[in-house]
Amino acid sequence: MMMSNSLEAIRQTIPPHVTLVAVSKTKPVSAIESVYEQGVREFGENRVQELVEKNEVLPSDINWHAIGHLQTNKVKFVVGLAQLIHAVDSEKLFKAIEKQAIKKGVVQDVLLQIHIAEESSKFGFDAEELDQLLSSGAFDSEHVRVRGLMGMATFTDDENQVRREFSGLKQVFDKHSGGSFDTLSMGMSGDYKIAIEEGSTMVRIGSAIFGSRA
Ligand SMILES: *Cc1c(COP(=O)(O)O)cnc(C)c1O
């Protein structure tokens, strides 16, 4: 079967210290089941509604990753359900997550999204802003644990640019890593090999596993 071959091929290129998150957005439950049966337990979704619906019908030992931009009014559906929220891109969102985590009595793991791409439309903090926020204690919380950083490189064929952006993110990560700040989520289908070479500890791979999306 095509799908199992590509998953196996991808797995062989991912070293043991890097977590593979299979990005199943827009894909049917049956496709997720097939990848699940091959041993994958980490799945990523970017739409809250879809995450909630799939969680209801799929095995409970799946670890869900909320990978996309998250709206404050959707936070209540995600906190306690997602093992990891990848894209905290504002203090306001962090506070909303904290509020829900307190309400639900959980500790929510999150990543802070850092803006590394050239396109101005991408979400995230810039590196200086991050330094300032982290040192001011803005993200110190008993209910939200910042596990690290997430970033997306520019969508380009220029490998050197992609590498430069990932390498820049790794430098920011290294400044703050230690303790439970141990996760660097970078790399997608088109650029995960470069991301791993540049120090990624978690890759989010969709189309290379599940086929292209409509
Ligand atoms: C869709 C998506 C991915 C996976 O993209 P592919 O190119 O299909 O691997 C990774 N990260 C985020 C945030 C996404 O939205």
Summed up, what is this model?
This protein is α/β, with parallel strands linked by helices and 214 residues long. The protein has nine helices and eight strands.
Q: Please, could you describe this protein's structure?
A:
The chain is an alpha/beta fold and about 210 residues long. It contains nine helices and eight strands. An eight-stranded parallel beta sheet has the order 7-6-5-4-3-2-1-8. α6 links the parallel β5 and β6. It starts with a helix and ends with a helix. The model has no long low-confidence stretch (mean pLDDT about 95). Bound molecules: pyridoxal-5'-phosphate. Pyridoxal-5'-phosphate binds next to β8 and α9.
Which keywords apply here?
9 helices, binds pyridoxal-5'-phosphate, 214 residues, eight-stranded parallel sheet, globular
Question: Could you state the oligomeric state of the chains shown?
Answer: single chain
Principal-axis shape equals globular
The fraction of residues assigned to DSSP E strands is: 15-25%
What is the N-to-C order of secondary-structure elements (H for helix, E for strand)? HEHEHEHEHEHEHEHEH
Task: State the major sheet.
Answer: 8 strands, parallel
Structural class: alpha/beta
Distance between the termini: 20 Å
Uncertain stretches: none
Total number of helical segments? Answer: 9
The gyration radius over C-alpha positions equals 17 Å
Bound molecules: pyridoxal-5'-phosphate
Total beta strands: 8
Query: Helicity level, as a percent range?
Result: 25-40%
**Strand order across the largest sheet:** 7-6-5-4-3-2-1-8
